[in-house]
Amino acid sequence: MRNENFFSLARARFQTDLAELDHKRGWFIGLGVFLIVLGFLATGAAVATTMISVVVLGWILLAGSIGLAVLSFLTGRWGGFLLTLAAAALSAIAGITLLENPVIGAAAITLIIATILIVAGIYRSIASIVMRYPNWGWSLANGIITLVLGSLLLRHLPTASLYFLGLLIGIDLIFHGISWIGFGAGVHRLSSRVELPPEERRAA
Question: What tens digit of pLDDT does each residue of 110-158 get?
């Protein structure tokens, strides 16, 4: 009897929460559309998006260096004082460099990303061939594509660094927007299949 009451309460709570999400699905879909539009704008102005992202990252690093410096002096007796202070100095140098030379900063970030992609592509390719786990062919294809992408970035440096980060941010925004639209539509489809409680049915 207690189990039946528990499951009834859980079902009613799920139905109520689902109905509330369904009533607000317009906000989710609107957010998705906004992110998609923003993503296309960022992609269309990839160079400007790259420069803005580098400058923002520079300010974040500079603010982080200030926080680390304050923390190191507040905990001066801690054994890692010099290490924290050194991390603050490095963060400040990186932030100031990005702010003063965003083009060089974009090239450095793109170089790091390209190197990571190449290393990851080589590792995935070798691991999939050696281990031969189920569906290892997909992992091998993923590793090859990752390796090719990293190689293309390195080959087209420094020109690629002017627009790569902007394209990456724009595409990420577009896919986030699509996911929010899919979430809103999915909530509506699910709520239409679930019988709502009487109070929620009257409110709808």
Answer: 999 999 999 999 998 998 888 877 778 888 888 899 999 999 998 888 8
- Does the pTM surpass 0.85? The reply is no
- Chain centroid to Cα 161, Å, comes to 19
Q: Which pair of tokens denotes residue 80? A: 């890692």
Q: Residue 161: CB partners within 8 Å, gap ≥ 6?
A: 50, 103, 106, 107, 109, 110, 111
Tokens of 113: 């990303």
Question: How crowded is the C-beta side of 49, counted as CA atoms within 13 Å?
Answer: 20
Phi, psi at 156, each rounded to 5°: -100, 15
- Separation CA 68–CA 58 (nearest Å): 15
Give SS3 for 141: helix
Where do the H-state alpha helices sit in the chain? 2-23, 25-44, 46-74, 81-100, 102-131, 136-155, 164-193, 198-203
Handedness of CA 81, 82, 85, 91 (dihedral sign): negative
- Token pair of 101 as six digits: 């030379």
**How many alpha carbons fall within 13 Å on the CB side of residue 132?**
1
